[in-house]
Amino acid sequence: QVQAFDSDAAAVAALLKAARQTQGLKPVEAQARDLFRRPLLAAELAEHDAVILDPPRQGAQAQTQELARSRVAHIVYVSCNPSTFARDARTLIESGYLIDAITPIDQFRFSAHVELVAGFSRGK
Fold first, then answer.
1. Is 80 part of the annotated catalytic residue set?
2. Does domain 34-122 have CATH number 3.40.50.150?
């Protein structure tokens, strides 16, 4: 099962429509939710094996604090801001997560902008 959350209700509606029209997918649930003001709490994350985060430039501080309290085994974090990524990664690492891999992506060749994707796993 897949659960998706986004603050943009139109994006959520588009995801649900696409999921209904695509055969062979696992069930998809999606809802509009502002994860800055109302992050998923550690208790809400209890049933999740993995989480994928792709926050805006300001990062996901509130959500990473809840992830740090959770028992989620794997996290993939996509970031467009190395500074806020570093802040959020520190929160995860200090709570026992390890960085498995981190890959910079030079998606915008003629700018200084860089994306990155990092994988974290809960330390044993």
1. yes
2. yes
Residue ranges per structural domain of the chain: 1-33, 34-122
Model confidence pLDDT, tens digit, residues 68-115: 999 999 999 999 999 999 999 999 999 999 999 999 998 888 888 889
Choose the catalytic residue: 67, 80, 92, 118.
80
Say how far apart CA 114 and CA 122 lie, in whole Å: 26
pTM of the model: 0.91
pLDDT band for position 124 (50/70/90)? low
